[in-house]
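Following up on my earlier thread - several people asked me to post the actual chain instead of describing it. Fair enough. Here it is, all 429 residues.
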Amino acid sequence: MSSWSFLTFILFSLSCLISSLSNTSNNGISVELIHRDSPKSPFYQPSENNYQRITNAMKRSINHVKVFYKGSLTNYPRTTVIPDKGEYLMIYFVGTPPIKLYGIVDTGSDIVWFQCQPCKQCYKQTTNIFDPSNSSSYKDLLCSSKQCTSVDFSSCSKNNYCEYTINYVDGTVSKGNIGVETLTLNSTTGSSFSFPNFVIGCGHNNTMSFQGRNSGVVGIGGGPISLLTQLTSSIGGKFSYCLGPSMSNSTSKLNFGNAAVVSGPGVVSTTLVKKSPPIFYFVSLNAFSVGNKIIGFSKPQVEGNFIIDSGTTLTTLPSDIYKNVESTLVALVKLNRVKDPNKILSLCYSDKSNKYVFPKITAHFKGADVWLNSTSTFIPVANGVVCLAFAPSQDGIGVFGNLAQQNLLVGYDLQRNIVSFKPSHCTKL
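Reply from S.P.:
Thanks for posting it. Predicted structure:
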């Protein structure tokens, strides 16, 4: 999924009514987002302190970024998510009658799958496992169906039913049937929306290191059967999110349809670049700046050289830009350098007061200059120790992670092919 860990899974608190698709298109849907380390999250560990939670997120993030390297940008990937990064969760409902499921949400995945009975091999799930035999709306798809042939990871059973196999970087595996089912989302507006004949993966053989209430993965990438793609006609291809501080008790919002439009003073937009694999959201980065110094690339860049990923915690930069960003900060920051006690990040300082004002860092996307909050660029990793939440990429691929996106309202319009940014107090929206 998407962990240098947007990543970062959020609990999408949805409710459970049924309404028409026209209401979705006209009014939009807004749902709550809860960070996995918030006390409101079902995965909250009271025995951990904030520094341990940040360290764990960074470690998960390292695993997640590996998905972008292993040829995934030249060949359509069979592996697109890393479930153990565990940053955002979504509560949703499937079946008739509907049952409640918790899914790991990822902008870099393109299927909604969950554990299903009969479980030939399943990981431990503390909530109810979906049983398709108890739902009047579930149906297995045939191999000849358009939905089956549209995905790269499908195959055909001896009985001519469509099957899927997904292998994740961390060793997680999900195998099962591709079917259609009714998916229901509840919103914070008091309305609830039902989507019949929604394509899902019904997993009968699954292994996952991130266990508990989690039932599987909810992909909101750009693939043919992701949540977003399947809802596009109902939500106009629009969704947005606004991520508050990771340890906050307040909830954030995930918006669909008209509720996702980002407008008003301070909004900047850049073009989403269509390229392979279509799962990821590519944009063009021209430069970064630290203070008044602009740091560009040493070599000409292709369009779509940066990925916006809600499933990755850290922001990774091509090595030449990262090196110059770090050296510029070293020259400007008047604090004592120290080593990261977790041995993950390379630029760290002693700041026992937590009041030091770090230089302004701006991401210069094509047509959009996005200022990053200092609380999102320098994060506390131990008592009195703060580190730059950036890292050099392994293969020249840049990733705009979720820490950098905190307190930004980020809106995607897939019909206009743009993504917009607006500085916001996310917990107050």
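Confidence is low (pLDDT under 50) at residues 1-26, 62-86. That should answer part of your original question.
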